[in-house]
Design a protein that fits this description.
Elements (H helix, E strand, L loop, with lengths): L5 H13 L6 H48 L4 H29 L1 H10 L1 H16 L1 H11 L10 H15 L5 H15 L4 H22 L3
Length: 219
């Protein structure tokens, strides 16, 4: 396992757990007090398993569509090019699933570090509770930075990576450049091939917005 510092491990646990948060804030408060770490681990496993399953299903569907196109075509160039594109997309989906499975292989060590390191546990809790408490405000920041897109239409893993970065910049006082770099690394590890570029662009627009807000606010 590539060595990662406690806060990087905490971000991974938070990322894999945010989608599993209870809707009821009172339940979250209870988990934060005495049950959050076990729930984090369970949520992380469930999330990663679902992501891998969805990705492999997408790959299988693309391969089936490609096969159908080839069987019904008469070797027309357009049909062959379309089938080739479908196969490429299937390969991309499969590669993403392989990357996610590679992360899963490291999970036992990740969990052990989380259990042993108080900083991991506490920072993961901070991220999760900050995202949960300020989700509306965070999503408004993201929405403004998106170009012809909506927060709800983002892939869930990408949306949660961006939420974590905005929460760290806006509420946990992490330097913008570091928050963006960490988000990019999470995207390379858990998301699709080109997602890190998209996430980098969105977060840079978020920081530009925040700088304009500070500059225009009364001193």
């Amino acid at each position: 396992m590539k060595e990662r510092i406690p806060r990087q491990i905490a971000r991974e646990l938070a990322l894999l757990s945010i989608s599993q948060l209870p809707v009821n804030p009172k339940k979250l408060d209870k988990l934060a007090n005495d049950q959050l770490l076990p729930k984090l681990v369970l949520a992380a496993v469930r999330t990663l398993r679902a992501e891998v399953q969805d990705t492999l299903e997408n790959a299988a569907a693309e391969l089936q569509r490609s096969n159908d196109r080839l069987l019904t075509s008469h070797t027309r160039a357009n049909d062959l090019n379309t089938a080739r594109t479908m196969v490429k997309e299937a390969i991309d989906y499969t590669q993403t699933a392989i990357n996610q499975l590679g992360a899963a292989v490291e999970f036992p060590e990740l969990i052990q570090l989380a259990n042993q390191d108080k900083e991991v546990r506490e920072y993961a809790k901070q991220i999760i509770m900050t995202v949960d408490e300020h989700r509306h405000e965070i999503d408004e920041e993201i929405s403004t930075a998106l170009v012809d897109w909506q927060v709800a239409r983002l892939a869930q893993i990408d949306r949660d990576i961006i939420r974590i970065a905005v929460a760290e910049m806006k509420f946990l006082k992490l330097a913008d450049s570091m928050a963006i770099n960490e988000a990019v690394e999470l995207a390379k590890r858990y998301s699709e091939e080109d997602s890190h570029r998209f996430i980098n662009g969105v977060l840079r627009r978020v920081t530009e917005q925040q700088k304009r807000e500070v500059a225009s606010s009364p001193s």
